[in-house]
Each structure stands twice: as C-alpha cells, then as structure tokens.
Design brief:
Layout: H1 2-20, E1 27-34, E2 45-54, E3 61-69, E4 75-80, E5 84-92, E6 95-103, E7 108-114
Parallel strand pairs: 1-7
Antiparallel strand pairs: 1-4, 2-3, 2-5, 5-6
Length: 116
C-alpha cells in the first residue's frame, strides 16, 4: 500500500514538473498586403498598434506599437510577447487600408490586407 502511494506521489510530482516547464513562445503576426488585383505590394508601411491600456490595479500604462515595411512578396512579420488584439494600418504610396488582428500565444497568425 505504501509503495502504491509512493508511486502515485512521484507520478503526480513528475506531472507537475513537466507541465510547469512548458515555455510559451512569442506571438507572431504575418501581414500580407495585396492590391485590388491580388498582387503583393512591396515597401508598404504596416503599423500594428493597440490603444493605450491602463492596468486598473497597478496604474501602469501599456502602449503596443510596431511598424515594418513589406518585402517583395508583400509580407511584414511581427513578434510580440503577449496575446493582443491590434489595429492594422497599411500605407502604400496613395493607397491605404485598416483592419485588425488577434494575436494568440505561441501561434503564428496570418492576415491579408487589401489596399485601395
């Protein structure tokens, strides 16, 4: 009986150690900018931002903002530490677009934005 309890205790401790060691990866957002014909738009400015958020318990203000330019295949890649819902603003010469993206922990989220 004592041996069974010991084995169950060790199994429980092992399970707790394994589950607590899981590391979370950053959130990744890949924004693809295309024109009205579906062609990738290179050198478009892509801004991801979240309106200021104030933690009600600590009073700390968090501003999330990052910008990248698209590559020749129309992609801009972003990495963030935390999940968030971010506004997407794209400018390509005289063309613009607005959208949003929801980041998920340890996931790569893709969004295609059409500029007009």
């Amino acid at each position: 009986m004592n041996r069974i309890l010991l084995l169950l205790g060790l199994a429980l401790i092992g399970l707790l150690v394994v589950s607590s060691c899981k590391k979370t990866e950053p959130c990744e957002a890949i924004i693809t900018v295309v024109d009205s014909l579906g062609r990738p738009v290179a050198a478009a400015k892509v801004v991801l931002r979240q309106d200021s958020v104030v933690n009600p318990q600590t009073g700390v203000r968090a501003d999330v903002f990052d910008e990248e330019f698209t590559t020749s295949n129309g992609e801009a890649i972003f990495k963030f530490q935390w999940e968030a819902v971010l506004n997407v603003e794209v400018t390509a010469q005289t063309l613009t677009a607005k959208d949003y993206i929801r980041l998920e922990q340890s996931e790569t989220v893709r969004k295609t934005v059409l500029v007009k």
